[in-house]
Amino acid sequence: MSAPSRPEPNYFGAGPALLPTNVLEEAAADLLNYQSLGVGVGEMSHRSSQATDIINETKENFNKILNIPDTHEVFFAQGGGTGGFAAVVYNMLASFAQKTGKKGKVDYFITGAWSQKASEEAERLGADVNIVADARKFNNGKYGVIPAKSEWKFSDPSETAYVYYCDNETVAGVEFAEVPEVPEGVELVADMSSNILSKELDVSKFGLIFGGAQKNIGIAGVSFYVIKKSLLDRLPQKEANALGIQVCPIFLDFPSIVKNNSAYNTVSILCIHIINLVLKNLLAKGGLSAQESLSKRKAQKVYSILDQNPALFNLPVDKSARSNMNIVFTINGEGNEEKFLKGSSARGLSGLKGHRSVGGIRVSNYNAVTEESIDKLIEFVKDFIKEASV
Amino acid sequence: MSAPSRPEPNYFGAGPALLPTNVLEEAAADLLNYQSLGVGVGEMSHRSSQATDIINETKENFNKILNIPDTHEVFFAQGGGTGGFAAVVYNMLASFAQKTGKKGKVDYFITGAWSQKASEEAERLGADVNIVADARKFNNGKYGVIPAKSEWKFSDPSETAYVYYCDNETVAGVEFAEVPEVPEGVELVADMSSNILSKELDVSKFGLIFGGAQKNIGIAGVSFYVIKKSLLDRLPQKEANALGIQVCPIFLDFPSIVKNNSAYNTVSILCIHIINLVLKNLLAKGGLSAQESLSKRKAQKVYSILDQNPALFNLPVDKSARSNMNIVFTINGEGNEEKFLKGSSARGLSGLKGHRSVGGIRVSNYNAVTEESIDKLIEFVKDFIKEASV
């Protein structure tokens, strides 16, 4: 039995994103026959000993790679990032209510499309939403900056269930350079769907980190959560509901999921196994310290060549807020963007079209995008510049 | 590039369940390189033209195989069957409220662990639950029958948002022989997680059919829904909430999902692609008419050998309610069940242990379990009987 393989792709899609070829080779073989059991990893009971081993090993590797303290717990659920937007509201409000007897306010940073959607979901679910800062107010109505700290307007800390932000915005290409400082005692919630595992992280700063898996860490069909264990102590749903908190569907109820080791309902063991393969692959390559250097170096190469040609390339994001994961730009000169996409495609470089809502070009620089791919792109950009300036 | 393969498994696990080897071979190859694009089916944008083609083709094949009328629509979502329990409540109550201005009552048949869980989720979410019939009341406190029609107690039809039942209960091994008749004008909702595609179905009888994919139709990570289109007309969530209906998280909001062709948020294109491969495989083998004959014949072979040896085997389920998908029994004589499991395992027959809550033996007879596997099992059972009666 030999696993399928492929030539190394040069693919810069924004997500679902590239995964390392060796990870997919192993996953493909395991889809047919896992550990010589005779059946595949997608066909085993999620409560079998093999599945439990996969879940436990994935959690251990998650703990190891992110250096997660004992105060925090890793778990997996369904619903993706968008499911997470809702899960955050239900669960964090009920935790705060357990501690204070109150519903609590929720504070949202809005720095791009994803944090905007998350705040809208909180509103839909009846949360009392305060916007800490909306980046558009400080950048002519467009995303592209992280508002200055002096502009942040938090709610009264004693009333605040949590502060929410999206660490990396894939559409706008905006990333927080540092974890935002929040008022003492207030829980911080981060959507890290698109930059988890790209850099080192002090998990102790967070009440909750979550994300859909389909960027740096796996494929769609599962979400990851890292929660401060004390937040699992929450008001029972009936009492929480009496305070105006919506009832959480049971499959997104954090305490139920954790109590059942992520197998309250049928979580995808294939998806968790792929996360584990990604984590093992990254640990073997030096973990997050090595990855952070690599991510920054790759991104810097792209930003650098673009910055050197300001007559041709427009980079809408403020330098202090530039994402290492999603590099967005537009190209001056009629027809130049089409020429760029066509030319890059002819060289086997794909997935470069900007998000439909903003247009232009987007270079996604996730973990599985190799430095060789970035170098090939740079070579193309150099040739493009020569031709464009003729 | 050659896909991995495997010897044909003889696996009777209850789910996540076996899939056809040729389906997994194709999926494994596509995980690395889909249609020679150079990237895999799990790495493509869920809004790419390739992903849209996969979703559309899967819907078409779903329509074809189940002969779904124009009045109904197929879509895919996250959350599994348990997510579906909640999604049903939110969406069906809001549809009924749109039609009547009222919250409505919900009627549940309880015939096993899954319909019981579904009714509990409806209760949690504040629905006004009426139990049409609880099978345990008619079978000494245990599941194992479908209550007689004369015992069914429906709510007033003008007040009823929907009647819910689980067509096949995997733990108890109970299956409805016929679609239950409900009062004129009341919408019928069916959980068909574990027996979809095992038999022909008159979809026009249903308001909604749903299920997790990981039995007959795919792998965990996606759920399927077939909804009567008129039910997509629902009261806006704020007005619905004012009537006491909980707000649906946006990623489970049926109208939003359908409007976005199942790609409102990042649905797993790999999981949908596997559904499509399963559907194509089944269509090539004669569709549901052929599958129904095969399913019944396979199940009958097992029930028959067990029925012939009543001193040894106890079949707790009433003959009229026997499942063609999950055949449950216990074995008389101390140590005989262990002997059965050990002996079958030695012959390469696996996944036969009963659910932890009921014990005994469970033979799951899903579509991907071949008649050859069933025949091997029968041969083992015959030898087991000989030895046991010595």
From TrEMBL, chains A, B:
Its EC number is 2.6.1.52
What domain of life? Eukaryota
Which cofactors does this protein require? pyridoxal 5'-phosphate
Q: Is Amino-acid biosynthesis a UniProt keyword of this protein?
A: yes
What Pfam families does UniProt report for this protein, alphabetically? Aminotran_5
Enzymatic class: transferase
Give one GO biological process term.
Answer: L-serine biosynthetic process
Which keywords annotate this record?
Amino-acid biosynthesis, Aminotransferase, Pyridoxal phosphate, Serine biosynthesis, Transferase
| Catalytic reactions of this protein | 4-(phosphooxy)-L-threonine + 2-oxoglutarate = (R)-3-hydroxy-2-oxo-4-phosphooxybutanoate + L-glutamate; O-phospho-L-serine + 2-oxoglutarate = 3-phosphooxypyruvate + L-glutamate
Return the similarity comment: Belongs to the class-V pyridoxal-phosphate-dependent aminotransferase family. SerC subfamily.
Name listed for the protein in its UniProt record:
phosphoserine transaminase
